[in-house]
Amino acid sequence: MENLKETTITSEKVYDGALLRVRKDTVALPDGKSSVREYIRHPGAVALIAWLPDGKLLFIRQFRYPLKRVFIELPAGKIDPGENPEQTGLRELEEETGYRAEKLRFLMRIHPCIGYSDEVIDIYEAFDLQKTECRPDEHEFMEIFSLSLTEALSMIDKGEITDVKTLAGIFAVNHRKGRS
Fold it and tell me: What is the pTM of this model?
């Protein structure tokens, strides 16, 4: 694997925003030549497969500005400074959906944009949900709804769910159920 490794020669900050930081690095390639790599630094995120007592899953509908459309997604959010992923998951689930989970179980880690970002998303299953109060951030507007796993898989088949973290989570729990 060392024969594939690229080594940083120089690194410069291009942009430092509220959520994202953009870097431009010059790297030494395995063949001795150099190249430029531009990429986004991301704080990391957590997504949740939240199981309601009736066996359905919680989802949100939310407008995503870069693609100018509404997407169906799992509840999710970025990791704040000083938080671990479990804390983020519990906080985001309650803020976005108004449900508190008594138990989280790690499902998987994904790297959704490996060509241009260092983003990592940890996906957890959330169990024993208790209804509390939805407290979205002041700039977040979303609809919360539930679907059975079968309904979610059908929406994936129809192209109605296309968000990568949601696809990964749904496919993972479906695969796990198939092995049980």
Answer: 0.93
